Amino acid sequence: MRAALYYRVSTKLQEDKYSLAAQKEELAKYAKSQDWNIVGEFKDVESGGKLEKKGLNALLDLVDEGGVDVVLVVDQDRLSRLDTVAWEYLKSVLRDNNVKIAEPGNIIDLNNEDDEFISDIKNLIAKREKRAIVRRMMRGKRQRMREGKGWGAPPFEYYYDRETGTYKAKPEWKWVIPFIDNLYLNEQLGMKAISDRLNEISNTPTGKPWNEHLVHTRLVSKAFHGVMEKTFTNGETISIPGIYEPLRTEETYRKIQEEREKRGAQFSVSGRKSSEKHILKRTKITCGECGRKIQIATHGTKERPIYYAKHGRKERLDGSVCDININTVRFDKNIMTALKEILSSEEQAKKYINLDMDQDELNALKKNIKALNKKISQLQESLDRLLDLYLAGGLKKEKYLEKQKQLESQIEIYKKELDQNELKLKTVESSMWNYEYLYEYLEVITDLEKELTPMERVQIVGKIFPNATLYREKLILTADVKGIPIDIEIPIDPDPYPWHPKKRNTYTK
Question: Is 388 helix (H, G, I), strand (E, B) or coil?
Fold first, then answer.
């Protein structure tokens, strides 16, 4: 038997001091006792919940090349604590190459239904254990903070001093916070203008440009006057003073928050001062029916603005009229409810996002990709025929340009959908992301309602959801999670005033 040894730990500490060396010794000893030929050794220092790991990828490459009969691990959970899609992919690679999974004293043949069933149960138990480990870690972190000790990655202006157990400011980045504070309080600049001024001096330490979100986090974070404060998923908030070296005073922090409140109450809505601004004002919204841009229009009074997502009436290619005009009260609360539920748990997130995809759904996705390619090809042919008709004198220029624009708009919609579906297929097949990635990406909006001014809320939502698609029955918010477009489906409630159009203008929040 040609055996590939695979061993894994989750952290660098375990690699250096604990189980990695022990796993290697035990597996090599067992393979020798079985008279197996060791054809390769592979290791990872990463979470078992991720499929994309250097060592595991190298192992699967060797499997695909037909160079392995059995993968030997101390316990199957070293190989996998994967979600359902990723686990099925891993099993299929091993099964297709007739490769077994072995633990000392036990061999699992994935071509045997009973063996595979036991293997699936082990993976489910490993996933559950992983979640329990995370819960225990969070309990430990909460207790650490209760004892006055900090943890976690600091803002990039700081580094962790092991001797003192505190975070010290990096000398080369001490200028950033006083610089931002001066521009915000004294020169009265906004976050976009401040980020532009910062970029004139330097990029961030990671080499990326400054943006409004980075400026915002520095204006609202208590870390820069020394306080570590974290709110945990159980609702508990713990604050520890003196953990960070202060780069501003607490008095300056209070002045910044007062200034934020003032600005939040004084920005313009359609040229008038108001305390409101629609949350999707900086999100590019496209009509899902005709492909035109959707505007967030303001009606009502300056004290009680009413928002409509709409565009003008226009005839479509099939002769019908696209006249979408939706009072945003029909989906505003649904957006906030969806975001809260997505962040509350993976199960709640599944109400709005397809996190798992079975084989039937995978086949449907492939079928949809094929159908989109066909539609794009047909529309392109129609565009070519339209041009031939115009050149032959059978169509006036104005009509030709109008039809051309409509066809190109439809092609653009289908191409965008095609790109997203192809990337989604690639993502599902390689299991490049999971709920943890999504939570990490959306965690910034945890305090969207209580801690941000209206303008900041609009800016943050615009960054998180740069694009959206509006239909008559649903709104699709598209987030870019680690380069992968993730669609969040928001339901649109029935029109509260279907019987009397004039009453819509009398609606108040």
Answer: helix
